[in-house]
Design a protein that fits this description.
single chain; mainly alpha; elongated
Amino acid sequence: MELLIASAIAVLTAAGVYLVLRGRTFPVVLGLAFLSYAINLFLFAMGRLVINRPPIYDKAAEAYTDPLPQALVLTAIVIAFGMTAFVVVLALRTYLETGADQVDGHVDGPEDAEGGS
C-alpha cells in the first residue's frame, strides 16, 4: 500500500511540474491543482492515519489518531481552492487584456497558430 501511495504522489507531482512549465495558462492552472493534490496526499501519508480510532485523545480510548494531519489537509484544501480561483481570474484577465493565453503575454504568430516551426 505504501508503494501505491508513493507512486500516486510521484505521478501527481511529476504531472504538476510538467504542466506548470507549459507555455499556456490553462495547463499551468491544472499543474498547480495537481501539485496541491500531491501535497495533500503527502500530508496524509506522513500523518500515519489509523483506521477506526478516535481523532481526539480520551482516557478511555486505548489508541487515537493524530488530528494534526487532518487539520493541515483541510487547511491546504481551502488555501488551494482560493489560490486556484485567484489564478483562474488572473489568467482570464490577462487573456482579455492581451488577447493571448501565453504565460509570457506574447501573441502567437501565424506560424505558431498553424503548427509550423
